Amino acid sequence: DAGVIQSPRHEVTEMGQEVTLRCKPISGHNSLFWYRQTMMRGLELLIYFNNNVPIDDSGMPEDRFSAKMPNASFSTLKIQPSEPRDSAVYFCASRLAGENNEQFFGPGTRLTVL
Amino acid sequence: AQKVTQAQTEISVVEKEDVTLDCVYETRDTTYYLFWYKQPPSGELVFLIRRNSFDEQNEISGRYSWNFQKSTSSFNFTITASQVVDSAVYFCALTGGGATNKLIFGTGTLLAVQP
Predict the structure, then answer these.
(1) Residue B100 reports pLDDT greater than 60
(2) What distance in Å separates the CA atoms of residue A74 and residue A2, rounded to the nearest whole number?
(3) Are A77 and A20 spatial neighbours (Cβ–Cβ below 8 Å)?
(4) For residues A32 and A21, what is the distance between their CA atoms, to the nearest angstrom?
(5) Which of A16, B20, B42, B92 has CB atoms 3.0–4.6 Å from A81's, for a disulfide?
């Protein structure tokens, strides 16, 4: 079975540009999570979805960040406009709710905003 | 509030030594889950183990073992006979049961195993 798939793996962009990160969860999983990892703040949850519905977006840093999950097999995290302080590794994780609570992580997207 | 503390920022050992990574947690939930994840230099996060709050039995998986003690709110991880491939950042994490899906991570412990 394929794990969580994220694209792109690396993204370099200039300040002010729009960035879209993509995630395909493990088939059958109905919870999806977006995390950001930085040296300063460690791993922090940005938002999570249950059955495609956003449940908690309190971790989204500001209005420049938005996330969508139009169907069970796809989610996006968009930053518009991007800023240098958004540079981080963004992880997507998925989980099968109700069975157990381990989340399976994708390989991450390393974002660099110049 | 939930919190996970990994007081050891960095540990360096020589290959074949045993090493224990400490994890202390705080939660008000009666049902909760504890996890360990490994992040090797390649960057991915690899799930190692899950423990629920009702199961205090220690677990052993090969060279890895976990000691869960509710009395001290600790969930420590021991690697026996460490190997260079064990070099990674190890994260302890906590989540509540039921509708609470947030995975609260500790700050991680960087383990360097020298040959």
Answers:
(1) no
(2) 14
(3) yes
(4) 14
(5) A16
User: Are the C-beta atoms of residues B92 and B35 closer than 8 Å to each other?
Assistant: yes
Compute CA distances B3 → A55, A96, B81, B105, whole Å: 21, 24, 30, 8
Range from A37-46, A98-107, B12-21 that averages highest in pLDDT? B12-21
Strand, coil or helix: B86: helix
- Looking up tokens 């996006």 gives A76
| Residue of B53, B59, B56 whose CA lies nearest to B28 | B53
**Arithmetic mean of pLDDT over chain A:** 93
The dihedral region occupied by A28, where left means phi > 0, alpha psi between -120 and 50, and beta the remainder, is left
Do A54 and A33 contact (CB within 8 A), yes or no?
Answer: no
Segment B43-80, tens digit of pLDDT: 999 999 988 888 888 888 899 999 999 999 999 999 99
Residue bearing tokens 């049902």: B31
Given B43, B47, B105, which is nearest A43 (Cβ)? B105
pLDDT at A97 over 80: no
**DSSP notation for B24-82:** EEE---SSEEEEEEEE-TT---EEEEEEETT----EEETTEEEEEEGGGTEEEEEESS-
- CA atoms within a 13 Å half-sphere pointing along the CA-CB vector of A71: 4
Structure tokens at A17: 């540009």
Whether residues A95 and B91 touch (CB distance < 8 A) is answered with no
Distance between CA atoms of residues B19 and A112, nearest Å: 35
Does the CB of A110 have a partner CB in chain B at under 8 Å? yes
